[in-house]
């Protein structure tokens, strides 16, 4: 399965780079266990951040950032099979879960619930 990891990125940080970095680390911490279960983990920021930079963003929340940040995850959901929603308040991640449910995707709330991929 292709599994989108959704959780806080900017939420609760007041745009503090150290807190944002910690949130990204928390998202990424779920990726290796998913991979080891035989799936492909994906985090929207892995794709969005380079595009945001290329679009000329100069600060979090500017027009280029808004154009790309959330639409990347929404487009990814068209290709994903499931979502892992990690802990933490996040309107963006909640929206990802809402969209995923509309699409009939499976939502997991911890990596232990994700089954091993079939060989």
Automatic annotation (TrEMBL):
<protein>
    <submittedName>
        <fullName>DUF4406 domain-containing protein</fullName>
    </submittedName>
</protein>
């Amino acid at each position: 399965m292709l599994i989108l990891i959704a959780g806080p990125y900017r939420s609760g940080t007041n745009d503090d780079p150290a807190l944002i970095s910690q949130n990204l680390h928390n998202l990424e911490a779920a990726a290796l266990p998913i991979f080891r279960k035989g799936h492909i983990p994906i985090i929207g920021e892995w794709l969005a951040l380079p595009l945001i930079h290329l679009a000329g963003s100069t600060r979090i929340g500017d027009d280029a950032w808004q154009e790309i940040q959330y639409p990347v995850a929404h487009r990814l959901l068209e290709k994903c099979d499931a979502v892992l929603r990690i802990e933490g308040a996040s309107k963006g991640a909640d929206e990802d879960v809402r969209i995923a449910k509309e699409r009939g995707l499976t939502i997991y709330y911890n990596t232990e619930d994700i089954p091993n991929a079939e060989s």
